[in-house]
């Protein structure tokens, strides 16, 4: 009962504020607690549909914003959207053509859940690895990276992979995360830069 009320409360708050989903408050909290986005940063949002994180990003920075998703995203003023797979080279090239510099990469994407916990977690970690590869290809040294993941047996491996590329890496659970969920955000700050042969 308590978690249901909490969910409705956050959802209703998001709708009243004009956000496209309750996830907007997760990014606002991440920003408040971790300061990942500066006022002039260029930001890429992976798996951006329906666009609530793009709405928040537009509030947080005067820089350029690009959202990527397999599904179309309803237009937002001051935001460029790309329909495509962020793992594909041509999509990454479009991002770099749009943004001279990428300061921050964020991702709230998660796989469609099957209900099979270990399988879903493995797919979520795989998505995290793909998002990390994208970030390593486009981020400028010193840039920041935030992704959603899920606690489980492979979570530590993903954290360790990210630690190879960023000076500061930590897990963070938002207040808006539903009770009982294993959802955890990974906050990675200060990209070290691409390694030779990466």
UniProtKB/TrEMBL annotation:
Catalyses which reaction(s): uridine(2552) in 23S rRNA + S-adenosyl-L-methionine = 2'-O-methyluridine(2552) in 23S rRNA + S-adenosyl-L-homocysteine + H(+)
Molecular function per GO: rRNA (uridine-2'-O-)-methyltransferase activity
Amino-acid positions noted as binding S-adenosyl-L-methionine in the UniProt annotation, renumbered to this chain: 51, 53, 69, 85, 108
Keywords for the protein's UniProt record, in alphabetical order: Cytoplasm, Methyltransferase, rRNA processing, S-adenosyl-L-methionine, Transferase
Family matches, as SUPFAM superfamilies: S-adenosyl-L-methionine-dependent methyltransferases (SSF53335)
Chief location category: cytoplasm
Active site: 148
UniProt keyword Cytoplasm present: yes
Enzyme class at the top of the EC tree: transferase
All copies of domain Ribosomal RNA methyltransferase FtsJ, residue ranges: 19-191
UniProt-listed Enzyme Commission number(s): 2.1.1.166
Cell compartments where the protein resides: Cytoplasm
Record GO cellular component, one term: cytoplasm
Function: Specifically methylates the uridine in position 2552 of 23S rRNA at the 2'-O position of the ribose in the fully assembled 50S ribosomal subunit.
Family statement drawn from the similarity comment of this UniProt entry: Belongs to the class I-like SAM-binding methyltransferase superfamily. RNA methyltransferase RlmE family.
Descriptive protein name: Ribosomal RNA large subunit methyltransferase E
Organism: Methanoculleus taiwanensis
Origin organism lineage: Archaea, Methanobacteriati, Methanobacteriota, Stenosarchaea group, Methanomicrobia
